[in-house]
Amino acid sequence: MMKSFQFKLFKNKRKDQKLNDELYVFCKIYNHCLCLVKRHYKIFGKNPSKNKLQKHLRVLMNRGIKPEWKSLGYSQAIQDVTDRIYKSYQAFFAWCKKRSSEKKSPPKFKAFRKYKSFTLKQAGWKLDEEKGMIKIGKNYYRYNNSRNIEGRVKTVTIKRDQVGEWYIILSCDLGESYKPEKVIPMTGKSAGFDFGLSCFLTSSKNEKINSPEFLKQSLSELKSKSKKLSTKDKGSKNRKKARKVVARLHKKIANQREDFHFKLANDLVNKYDYLFFEDLNVSGMKRVWGRKVSDLGLDQFLKKVQFKAKEHGKTMKRIDRFYPSSKTCSKCTKVKKELALKDRHFHCNCGHQLDRDLNAALNILIVGASTIGLDGVSREFALASVA
Predict the structure, then answer these.
(1) Could you give the angle at which helices 50-62 and 13-44 cross, rounded to 10 degrees?
(2) What pTM did the predictor assign?
(3) What sign for the dihedral angle of Cα 215, 218, 223, 228?
(4) What is the pLDDT of residues 236-286, one digit of tens each?
(5) 197 DSSP assignment
(6) Minimal CA–CA distance to 118: which of 66, 75, 149?
(7) In this structure, are residues 270 and 313 in contact, taking their beta carbons and an 8 Å threshold?
(8) CB-based contact 325:360 (threshold 8 Å)
């Protein structure tokens, strides 16, 4: 099992500029490699092998054609640049075969402002956890040692955020025998959860959780600061300052949302051993409801629940997205095809009446439990839990 730990580097103008210079070179390498791949495909109708591309880079450095590349001293980090390009192409070609809802694009050339990180593998770094310092290349950097690092560090990613602040992300291998520091006891409980726009989450226990909608709360402030940014001259120092102000607000909103998601995911994993959710078509929902869906961050939340459940030995399962959980009666299983989105209460011909989201959550629990063969979760049991 892999786990990432992120720490913020303390500010240092000289050292931060050094990282910026190195990142700029990595950006140039990325664009150079991508140009070669595209040219090779145009001439021969196929991409060059990754080994062939990496060999070409070594030749350029050894012959002194690209001395600034060799001066980096990160041979494995340069290999990681080619890995990123080929992973992007693999994701794109996989999408071309499946044509899934989440569209993937082939890798594109990147401006320096949008190229945000580089990764070091076995070499190029040295960590001193006791002193809260890390050596990157020839320079030592202090970082905010806010938590203990678990497992064995496999890679170190140096990342610059939208504000210009620097972070290190340690990707650690926890091993097969890993146990978290705080063990959550097993409860034997199970629950289904239905997402909604008016109510973020409805459980099969009839618990409703509303999302604070952090983007909506800060929207007026964001519009005001974005308007000020639009009035600044391009390339001016005032525009750079205004862009940082807007970026800092976006970062604050994202941090608030992530904090809410992590706390809610922890709470659910503490309560339940088996958690069932619907596999949502988030990109399709964004096309219909736009900013509202982006503000909720449904996909990011599900990833956090999945990680927390795996970490503590719990089970998280997504049911088929094409199962009509909202239109199916949780008592008699008949499907009410004429149910509209505006109908917030479910009325069945069998006499069963229930809140629409609660009805969907019950169906998700029943279908999810039957999918993994969970005993003791019958339709009668699920209905009795909300009676």
Answers:
(1) 120
(2) 0.87
(3) negative
(4) 999 999 999 999 999 999 999 999 999 999 999 999 999 999 988 887 888
(5) S
(6) 75
(7) no
(8) yes
